[in-house]
Amino acid sequence: MGIVGVDIDHAASIIANGGVVAFPTETVYGLGANALNPNAVAKVFALKERPSFDPLIVHIASAENISLLSSCNDPRVFQLAERFWPGPLTIVVPKSTVVPGIVTSDLDTVGIRMPNHPIALELIKKSGCVIAAPSANKFGRVSPTRAEHVLKQLPEVDYILDGGKTTVGIESTVITLDEEGFIILRHGAITHSHLAQVLKPSGAHKPLKGLASPGLLKSHYSPNKPLYIAGETSKPIDPSMAGYIAFGKKPEGNYKRIEYLSETGDMVEAAAHLFEKIHAFEDSDVEYIVADPVPEVGIGIAIMDRLRKAAYRYK
Ligand code: TXA
Ligand code: MG
Questions:
Q1: Rounded to 5 degrees, what are φ and ψ at 75?
Q2: 3-class DSSP state of 223
Q3: Please, what are the domains in the chain?
Q4: Euclidean distance between CA atoms 24 and 160, whole angstroms
Q5: Angle, nearest 10°, between helix axes 300-312 and 267-282?
Q6: Measured in angstroms, how far is the CA atom of residue 33 from the centroid of ligand 1?
Q7: ipTM value of the model?
Q8: CB 293: neighbour CB atoms within 10 A?
């Protein structure tokens, strides 16, 4: 039997027995293990080559598990869960004593999310576990939106549950709360204005900048070949050797290959295709990748965050 398949019972028993399974969520594929089993979680860090200072998100299938994982009974957390779960929102809350330190990099907080994907929810329920899962890529590399992308980077995983292409395409929004309101730690499909329909932002009069979160490094999502943002690079670009990720309209120049994020300039569609197109160019014969910037509003903030980090080491 190959390691890629659709057997949720098999995947659930691997998780329950301390193994590691890659599984689809609506955002990207996760690399999951029983969050309450430190040895299983250690395998996730080892497979991913992830530094121990970068905490994992714990995935749950029932909001009741908030009180298993967290000592907090802040009604705002339940309000957010009610409005946005299952969905691409991770809420960082004070952790309870059952959560092993390895999951949270010894922070006293834990990130929790309920993914909006039937396979992920069934896997969590059938395993009888809460599942700690980072994105299923090697540390610092491009997140997977298909089972094939996981196999390319992590062929040593015990099993890869294949759920086809993910729909949201970029990782969840990560937030925390202070006494005033919410603070966005990582931008995603749930935007500032979505959150503001439920809660006040913290420091409503200050511009909200992404605050330090241990895993938020300047370089991340790096393809295995250089990626440049059009108009933001001084590198001379030879179009005949480059793959171009166009947002909406056709770029000028005779590019070797052009892939469109959204023919109609729809940013939600663009986010869904972003990592997909970067993976396609990784696997193609273009020598480098040039990407259009997108307007930094709404989900465009999350898209530009991913692009800038992907381009960072190639500046
Ligand atoms: O959409 C997603 O969030 C995907 C899917 C699989 O759920 N997961 C994901 O995990 O993107 P990962 O590990 O690649 O990114 C999670 C980030 C960490 O890098 C860290 O910055 C932040 O979430 N994080 C997790 N726990 C935290 C905590 N207790 N405090 C602050 N930031 C935390
Ligand atoms: Mg990641």
A1: -60, -25
A2: coil
A3: 4-196 (3.90.870.10), 227-312 (3.40.50.11030)
A4: 9
A5: 20
A6: 14
A7: 0.99
A8: 15
Rounded to 5 degrees, φ, ψ at 127 are -75, -20
Instruction: Indicate the pTM of the whole model.
Output: 0.95
* Residue with CA closest to ligand 1 atom 7: 30
Residues 268-313 have pLDDT tens digits of: 999 999 999 999 999 999 999 999 999 999 999 999 999 999 999 8
- The predicted-structure confidence for 231-261, as pLDDT tens digits, reads as follows 998 888 899 999 999 998 899 999 999 999 9
Looking at ligand 1, which residue's alpha carbon is closest to its atom 19? 215
How many Å lie between the centroid of ligand 1 and the Cα of residue 231?
30
Q: State in Å: Cα 287 to ligand 1 middle.
A: 31
Take atom 32 of ligand 1 and give the residue whose Cα is closest. Answer: 213
Cβ atoms of 185 and 198 within 8 Å: the answer is no
Give the number of other CB atoms < 10 A from CB of residue 46.
11
